[in-house]
């Protein structure tokens, strides 16, 4: 077998609401082979990985995989389970897997769940799959491979990139409170919330943490002075810039003393209970570092405590014990250390609740002073210290004493945090007993340090006592009860009309006073301004908008490609819109049928918040059926259907049941709720609809109205937005007319059968007949789809100029022209086809062919070259279209008020349906 590639879907996807990796396997020589074709394979595999015996597989019970292998199953499926088992063995707890056919007969996609906050660039999943392949092929070859070395290597990689204990707890606490969480790269930096409610937290440091407070806390000399000036008890001490000065401080304040770096952390370089000059000199050399200075303080007897202050209150307290081992009369110190380190709660650095013990120079020196070494055997019950300072980072342990903390001790810690200016901080203090008031005697109690970005391990999972939800306390500080963490999200998908619909929605929300972030195939826009130029209809652009702190609402074009290749860029939407599902992109990414397309786009409908809103096209059966999907029903959204007219059966039934719907009736865009009707505005007043002739634009407007009304945008604002939705400025490249000499040039992005048919119908109705078309089509569509699109074009246009885009998308030069011409001639034998080399030649040829005043339809792939060409031709945007011809349905013909007399107030008139 061979691993071809791995891709990640970092957001909700068609397989799972959590991240997955998709590995493309080529079974090669094992194609068509089943496990039963290789006697003894299953037994050898389970010998190597006994945990496989507990895998449920599709049976839904332990032993399901064993039963599947006994019946006979393919090796892609086996590789899936082996990868999941290996993942569990390194502590990477994931449970979902699936294997599906892909590409050729030997190719399979293995879909594997990934930890939610695993970095997108992680190589761990590839390493696991590669090891799984070696394991399976080894078992096939008759060997039971030794996996220990490989697992140790992969485990180290996994541990090195996973979130730290504190940051992981913060992520979990935020998700429990329904706050969106996204890890930034491979850092312990979390982005919380969306839009203007976005916050960031780095370990236990929030974006509200004072920069000055951080500086004070990080400078032990300055923190000592600030606390002392505020009357907070601190040890007596001085800064020493040389060993001689350190000895002078020892003589001045008397021993024992503590020597520590001015800017140290995690207990590194801290030396305590020093009484001898030689000890102080040695400690100075260890602690001075590059600074050349140390802090020499009086040693305060008593117990070590860490108190966590969050938002001006004590939320947890722990008593700390220094690293030590207890003898049993037979084991050596080294063996006792190994025994302690076997606890799965201990890990390297901060990746576990506790840190492993080590026998380094500091530990060996302290052992020697106690008469021990690594090979010595302590007596039964003898407590042997490995460190003097009590710190989790050097192997210490903690005992929860939150409930024991005396109010006066708590008040002292709160004062210290406020004095330094920290919203979240850890207070290190020593005193006889945290359960009693601090002694008033000088030197009997004191605050040793104020720690910025304090570790939470000792409070989350203390060695003794109950754990505290301190991560939740920090999240509650950032998002107090009742504080939103999200902005409204509208996600729009479908085959046609996505870009126009999102642009309409964004315009409506902007007029409603909401600064809106919008993604579309033309780029990312914030507040109506382009901030990132690209095809921005995927998850990365969604993340860009949702990470913008100026955004009040987000409107996201959510295209098929982004869903398939990376998943969604958000966890759920307030409003999901599906415009339609028709033939396009077939043959791409293993999508063969319209049902396959519907399955992909259904994800947008399914990932709506519980009780949110789902806008569906009632006139499109594939779209309307999405409401019946189990995951959609589970979210119980309010359904809002739209259709060109009120007689769509799905819409009729929906309204009869008291639902909400949108349609055009008597020349008006109409909102219906049960038997109530609200006229929004005359259809002919929709800017860019060509007086109502552009039925597809009217449909887009209906979808947009349904979406914003779900968000509470007033009807008068909706009407004003649709009247002012100028295509040239707000919807460039979609239904825009330019006057070039005597000819109107209609520029549109239609590129599939449904879109081309809709534009053809517009041209026929608006200009009473055909015109000349200059066209190109995307090269990455299947031959069948290109043929069908060309046939749709030929239904309207008898004269067509065909050109190829600069980006052939994998096609050979001239191939697309041949396919388009072939489809045109099969649909319309009398068609006159004029091949052109490029865009410029195509436009010139079309204008030359067209009679004066005759329209030219220009279909394109990239808009910017079109705009540049039109500018060189002196093209002028057509400011307005003439009134609708007789065949168009207008509100005045239908007995309604003409657009010239409609006022803002009349646009929101509500009438019973009987009128």
How would you summarize this macromolecular structure in one to three sentences?
With 915 residues, this protein is α/β, with parallel strands linked by helices. The chain is 34% helix and 22% strand. 50% of the residues are buried.
Describe the structure.
With 915 residues, this protein is an alpha/beta fold. Among the domains are: 2-162, no CATH class; 236-298, ATP-grasp fold, A domain (Dna Ligase, domain 1, 2-Layer Sandwich), CATH 3.30.1490.20; 489-731, Mur-like, catalytic domain (UDP-N-acetylmuramoyl-L-alanine:D-glutamate ligase), CATH 3.40.1190.10; 736-877, Alpha-Beta Complex (Protein-Tyrosine Phosphatase, Chain A). The strands form eight sheets. The chain has a twelve-stranded mixed β-sheet with strand order 25-24-23-26-22-27-28-29-30-31-32-40, with helices on both faces. A hairpin with a 2-residue loop joins β24 (523-526) and β25. α6 (165-176) packs across α15 (470-478) and α26 (753-766) runs parallel beside α27 (783-794). Residues 876-915 are annotated as: Disordered. It is an enzyme of class 6 (ligase). In the C-terminal section; belongs to the MurCDEF family. Keywords: ATP-binding, Ligase, Nucleotide-binding.
Tell me how many strands there are. 40
Strand content: 15-25%
Runs in which pLDDT lies below 50 for 5 or more consecutive residues are: 881-915
> Main beta sheet, described?
12 strands, mixed
User: What name is given to the CATH topology of the domain at 489-731?
Assistant: UDP-N-acetylmuramoyl-L-alanine:D-glutamate ligase
* Fourth CATH level, the homologous superfamily of the domain at 489-731: Mur-like, catalytic domain
Give the second-level CATH assignment, the architecture of the domain at 489-731.
Answer: 3-Layer(aba) Sandwich
Shape: elongated
Average pLDDT score: 90
Alpha-beta classification: alpha/beta
Total helices: the number is 30
CATH class of the domain at 489-731: Alpha Beta
Radius of gyration: 35 Å
CA-CA gap between termini: 70 Å
- The helix content is 25-40%
For the largest beta sheet, what order do the strands appear in spatially?
Answer: 25-24-23-26-22-27-28-29-30-31-32-40
GO molecular function: ATP binding; cyanophycin synthetase activity (L-arginine-adding); cyanophycin synthetase activity (L-aspartate-adding); metal ion binding; tetrahydrofolylpolyglutamate synthase activity
InterPro entries: ATP-grasp, ATP-grasp_RimK-type, Cya_phycin_syn, Cyanophycin_syn_N, Folylpolyglutamate_synth_CS, Mur-like_cat_sf, Mur_ligase_C, Mur_ligase_C_dom_sf
Biased composition (Low complexity): 898-915
EC number: 6.3.2.29, 6.3.2.30
């Amino acid at each position: 077998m061979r691993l071809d590639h791995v891709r990640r879907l970092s957001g909700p996807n068609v397989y799972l609401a959590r991240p997955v990796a998709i590995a493309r396997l080529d079974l090669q020589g094992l194609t068509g082979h089943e496990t039963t074709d290789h006697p003894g394979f299953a037994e050898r595999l389970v010998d190597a990985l006994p945990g496989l015996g507990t895998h449920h597989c599709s049976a839904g019970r332990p032993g399901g995989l064993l039963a599947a292998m006994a019946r006979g199953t393919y090796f892609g499926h086996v590789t899936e389970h082996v990868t999941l088992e290996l993942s569990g063995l390194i502590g990477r707890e994931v449970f979902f897997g699936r294997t599906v056919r892909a590409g050729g007969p030997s190719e399979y996609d293995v879909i594997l769940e990934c930890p939610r906050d695993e970095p997108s660039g992680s190589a761990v999943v590839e390493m696991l799959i590669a090891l799984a392949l070696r394991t399976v092929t080894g078992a096939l070859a008759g060997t039971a491979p030794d996996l220990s070395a490989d697992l140790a290597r992969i485990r180290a990689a996994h541990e090195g990139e996973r979130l730290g204990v504190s940051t992981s707890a913060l992520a979990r606490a935020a998700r429990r409170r329904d706050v969106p969480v996204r890890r930034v790269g491979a850092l312990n930096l979390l982005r919380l919330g969306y839009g203007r409610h976005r916050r960031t937290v780095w370990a236990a440091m929030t974006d509200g943490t004072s920069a000055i407070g951080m500086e004070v806390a990080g400078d032990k000399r300055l923190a000592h002075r600030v606390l002392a000036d505020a009357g907070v008890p601190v040890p007596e001490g001085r800064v020493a810039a040389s060993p001689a000065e350190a000895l002078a401080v020892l003589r001045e304040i008397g021993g024992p003393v503590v020597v520590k770096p001015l800017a140290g952390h995690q207990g590194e370089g801290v030396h305590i209970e020093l009484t001898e000059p030689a000890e102080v000199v040695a400690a100075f050399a260890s602690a001075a570092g590059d600074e050349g200075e140390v802090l020499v303080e009086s040693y305060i007897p008593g117990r070590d405590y860490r108190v966590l202050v969050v938002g001006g209150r004590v939320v947890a307290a722990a008593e700390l014990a220094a690293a030590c081992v207890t003898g049993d009369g037979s084991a050596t110190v080294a063996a006792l250390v190994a025994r302690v380190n076997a606890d799965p709660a201990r890990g390297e650095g901060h990746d576990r609740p506790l840190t492993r013990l080590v026998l380094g120079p500091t530990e060996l020196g302290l052992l020697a002073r106690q008469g021990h070494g690594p090979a010595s055997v302590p007596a039964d019950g003898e407590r042997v210290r490995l460190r003097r300072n009590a710190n989790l980072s050097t192997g210490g342990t903690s005992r929860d004493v939150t409930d024991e903390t005396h109010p006066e001790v708590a008040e002292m810690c709160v004062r210290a945090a406020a004095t330094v200016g920290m919203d979240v901080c850890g207070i290190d203090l020593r005193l006889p007993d945290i359960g009693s008031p601090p002694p008033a005697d000088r030197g009997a109690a004191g605050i040793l340090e104020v720690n910025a970005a304090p570790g939470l391990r000792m409070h989350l999972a203390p060695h003794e006592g109950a754990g505290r939800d301190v991560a939740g306390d920090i999240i509650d500080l950032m998002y107090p009860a009742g504080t939103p963490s999200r902005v409204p999200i509208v996600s729009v998908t479908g085959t046609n009309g996505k870009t126009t619909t999102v642009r309409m929605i964004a315009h409506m929300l902007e007029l409603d006073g909401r600064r809106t972030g919008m993604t579309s195939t033309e780029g990312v826009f914030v507040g109506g301004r382009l901030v990132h130029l690209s095809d921005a209809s995927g998850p990365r652009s969604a993340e860009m908008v949702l990470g913008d702190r100026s955004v009040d609402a987000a409107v996201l074009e959510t295209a098929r490609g982004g869903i398939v290749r990376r998943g969604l860029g958000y966890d759920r939407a307030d409003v999901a819109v599906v415009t339609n599902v028709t033939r396009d992109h077939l043959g791409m990414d293993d999508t063969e049928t319209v049902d396959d397309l519907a399955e992909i786009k259904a994800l947008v409908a399914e990932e709506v918040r519980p009780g949110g809103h789902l806008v569906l096209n009632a006139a499109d059966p594939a779209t309307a059926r999405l409401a019946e999907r189990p995951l959609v029903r589970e979210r119980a959204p309010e359904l809002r259907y739209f259709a060109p007219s009120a007689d769509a059966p799905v819409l009729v039934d929906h309204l009869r049941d008291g639902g909400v719907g949108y349609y055009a009736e008597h020349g008006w865009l109409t909102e219906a709720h049960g038997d109530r009707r609200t006229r929004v505005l005359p259809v002919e007043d929709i800017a860019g609809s060509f007086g109502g002739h552009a039925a597809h634009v009217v449909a887009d407007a209906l979808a947009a109205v349904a979406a914003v009304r779900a968000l509470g945008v007033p009807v008068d604002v909706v009407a004003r937005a649709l009247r002012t939705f100028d295509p040239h400025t707000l919807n460039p490249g979609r239904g825009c007319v330019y006057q070039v000499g005597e000819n109107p040039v209609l520029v549109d992005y239609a590129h599939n059968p449904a879109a081309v048919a809709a534009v053809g119908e517009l041209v026929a109705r608006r200009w009473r007949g055909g015109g000349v078309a200059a066209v190109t089509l995307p090269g990455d569509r299947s031959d069948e789809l290109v043929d069908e699109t060309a046939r749709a074009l030929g239904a309207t246009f008898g004269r067509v100029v065909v050109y190829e885009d600069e980006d052939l998308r994998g096609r050979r030069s001239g191939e697309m022209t041949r396919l388009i011409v072939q489809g045109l001639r099969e649909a319309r034998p009398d068609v006159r086809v004029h091949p052109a080399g490029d865009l410029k030649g195509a436009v010139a040829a079309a204008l030359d062919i067209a009679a004066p005043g005759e329209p030219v339809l220009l279909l394109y792939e990239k808009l910017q070259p079109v705009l540049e060409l039109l500018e060189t031709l002196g093209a002028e945007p057509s400011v307005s279209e003439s009134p609708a011809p007789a065949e168009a349905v207008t509100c005045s013909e239908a007995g309604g008020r003409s657009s010239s007399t409609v006022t803002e107030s009349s646009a929101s008139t509500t009438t019973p349906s009987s009128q």
